[in-house]
Design brief:
By secondary structure, this protein is of the alpha+beta class. It is built from 4 helices and 7 strands. A hairpin with a 6-residue loop joins β3 and β4 (77-82).
Length: 150
């Protein structure tokens, strides 16, 4: 049984561990542990500007299996993260559907250009590429994707 709820302050350790594990599964050569303070500050700033962080929990202990950070005013999806032990179980789609409920007309995001798994995921969920950019932390190329309600 899964549930969706707002992030709580006590979630930070589990949320950060999940984020690091997920990114290390995708890009094992980048030190995501060193980026924990950045993520904490970044999400706090996003939430201050109107974004919400929604956690998907599962099981009797309500373990966080994933989370999404979405601003319903701007449609900006900054983070969507699923723990690697939950890859392929539909939690990414669940989180994306929650983001679409929070921003029902439009969502935009950036994704690393070499994160092919993520790009395929978004394309399967009706996102289209609208531009290119660069990651502000690493300088790595990104693609800009958008989803619009049909």
């Amino acid at each position: 049984m899964t549930t969706i709820r707002l992030r709580e302050e006590t979630d930070w350790p589990q949320l950060l561990d999940l984020w690091v594990a997920s990114w290390l599964a995708t890009f094992p050569f980048i030190d995501f542990n060193a980026r924990r303070p950045w993520l904490t500050q970044h999400i706090a700033e996003l939430e201050k500007d109107g974004a919400v962080t929604l956690c998907l929990t599962q099981g009797p202990n309500k373990e966080i299996a994933g989370f999404v950070v979405i601003n319903s005013t701007t449609g900006w999806l900054d983070q969507i993260c699923v723990g690697p032990q939950y890859f392929g179980q539909g939690y990414g789609e669940d989180l994306l559907n929650i983001a679409k409920k929070n921003s029902p007309q439009f969502i935009s995001l950036d994704v690393n250009a070499d994160n092919y798994r993520a790009i395929r995921f978004y394309e399967r969920n009706d996102f289209v590429q609208v531009g290119e950019g660069a990651n502000t932390l690493s300088g790595r190329p990104t693609v800009m994707l958008e989803w619009r309600h049909k």
